[in-house]
Amino acid sequence: MIASSMLDTAQPARSTLLDRPRTSRWRRRIAAVSREKASEGVAGRILRRLGLAIGIAGMIAAIVELPEIADQTRFVPFGWTVVEVVLAFGLFPVLAIVSVGMSCRAVQYVAGVAAVSFVAAMAVVPFAYSQPEADGASVWLYRVLALGVLAAVLAWPPPLAIAYLLVSAALGALANLAVLRESTMLSLLGDFARAAGLSALFLWCAIHARVAADRVDRESAIESSRAAAVAGAAARERERARFAALIHDAVLSTLLDASRGGTESPVLRRQAERTLEQLDACRVGEVEPDRLDAHSAIGFLRSAVHEVNPGVRFTARRWAGFDDLHLPVEAASTIAAALAEAARNSLRHATFAGREVRRTVTVTISAGGIRVVFRDDGAGFDLSEVPADRLGISVSILGRMRRLSGGAGFVESQPNEGTTVTLVWGSDG
Questions:
Q1: What phi and psi, each to the nearest 5 degrees, are found at residue 317?
Q2: Contacts of 319 (CB under 8 A, 6+ apart)
Q3: Is 222 a residue whose pLDDT tops 90?
Q4: For 43-47, 177-181, 208-212, which range has the lowest pLDDT when averaged over its residues?
Q5: What pLDDT is recorded for position 6?
Q6: Number of other residues whose CB lies within 10 A of the CB of residue 303
Q7: What does the H/E/C string look like for 206-238?
Q8: Which of 50, 124, 269, 328 has its Cβ near the most Cβ atoms within 10 Å?
Q9: Cβ partners under 8 Å of residue 126, min gap 6
């Protein structure tokens, strides 16, 4: 048998059992991150861009401050200088990398660790300087305090970021008090005010950007919800009209047949019973107007194929407890149209001279999914030899199912061995 879904992937992929666990683990991680990045809103994208910008700013600040750091090594042992530089700037390159390729949660985690590490660098200043400086220059960490504040804005809510600003500004002023030879309480307050004021400007900008992004996401979610509600209402109205038309036609057909028939007919009785069942379901409201349950979906597909060929044998399989189906009307219409096209193609092309062709449809309902299989034992054909201008299979069957969200279609056939068309939706897809 030749499966149409396998035509473009005829060569099997080879992989060893030893390679699969390692590659699949990384693929799952990459796929999870890709899904999260694809689904994140404006707030997530702003968070990533801020993380990248702050990470790069930390690396630039480290380079710019190198001359001052080297100059202040006169008063600080080299080991303490390395500790301060690593604590202050070591995590900002990591923040830039994580902001590009990992989840928003990872960005916030690294930013929080960077903010705490920056405070730790300032806390060790009194222990690092063995003697105060003679020239009155402030400690170099004091000038890059805004980096720690920006990292805190990324990691924590605004109240915690503001508290971080106050604590870090106070530590910066105390660091200058420990380093500078001539330092007074007035200069201490001035150092605190300057550090807090400059950092507050960066803090306000970052908080405003994140709050604005959150507002955009909320408005977008509200608009999406409204659009979905409007679309759902329109779909329900269309389905009510369609269902009313179907009921109307069934009632008229039943009454017309009853008026013409002079004797009792089993066919007419079944038709009347089916019409009454549909009317009761519509009156009581037991079914969703834009969804079909398992029973309704089976009846819908049976009607679709029997309109084309009443001789097709129709079978449905359901298992109690595993046949919970909520099939959208649009999906049911697509499957029914593809099934009807398969039946028409079989009538046109599957005939055998001197032999009756058997045609069957099997519908299987599973948890949240449906599988429809149309089979005939007719002439069959070679899929590779189907002309390009023959659109019955490529467009009317497979194309329809490809365009259906959650759907898929497959055609298998060989000359003189019949044809099988498989249509799936939901969990069976």
A1: -120, 125
A2: 365, 366
A3: no
A4: 177-181
A5: 38
A6: 13
A7: HHHHHHHHHHHHHHHHHHHHHHHHHHHHHHHHH
A8: 50
A9: 174, 175, 178
Give pLDDT tens digits for 228-260: 666 666 666 655 655 655 554 455 555 555 655
CB 170 within 8 A of CB 140: no
Count the neighbouring beta carbons within 10 Å of the beta carbon of residue 304.
19
Picking from 363, 393, 398, the residue whose alpha carbon sits closest to that of residue 380 is: 393
Give the pLDDT mean for 322-342. Answer: 84
Whole-model pTM over 0.90: no
pLDDT of residue 400: 84
Q: Please give the Cα distance from 184 to 372 (Å, whole number).
A: 86
325-328 own/partner pairs: CB under 8 Å, 24+ apart: 325/292, 325/293, 325/294, 325/297, 325/365, 325/368, 325/369, 325/370, 325/426, 326/288, 326/291, 326/292, 326/293, 326/368, 327/291, 327/292, 327/293, 327/297, 327/370, 327/425, 327/426, 328/290, 328/291, 328/292
Across the strands, what pairs with 360? 313, 375
**Tokens at residue 257, please?**
């047949």
Query: d(Cα 110, Cα 11) in Å, to the nearest integer?
Result: 44
Tokens of 51: 């993380």
pLDDT exceeds 80 at position 215? yes
AA letter at 37? K
Percent of the residues in the chain that have a pLDDT greater than 70, as a whole number: 69
Q: Indicate whether 16 pLDDT > 50.
A: no
Residue type, 26: W
| C-alpha atoms less than 13 angstroms from C-alpha of 107 in its C-beta half-sphere | 26
Closest CA to 171 of 196, 154, 150: 196
Q: Which of 139, 145, 120, 165 is nearest to 58 (CA)?
A: 145
CA 91 to chain centre: 30
Residues 149 and 205 sit within 8 Å (Cβ to Cβ): no
For residues 94-122, one letter each, b for 16 or more C-beta atoms within 10 angstroms of the residue's C-beta and e for the rest, the string is bbbebbeebbbebbbbbbbbbbbbbbebb
Give residue 283's pLDDT. Answer: 54
Question: What integer best gives the mean pLDDT of the chain?
Answer: 77
Task: Provide the pLDDT for residue 161.
Answer: 92
Separation of alpha carbons 142 and 192, rounded Å: 10
Beta bridge partners of 3: 412
Residues 213, 206: Cα–Cα separation, whole Å: 11
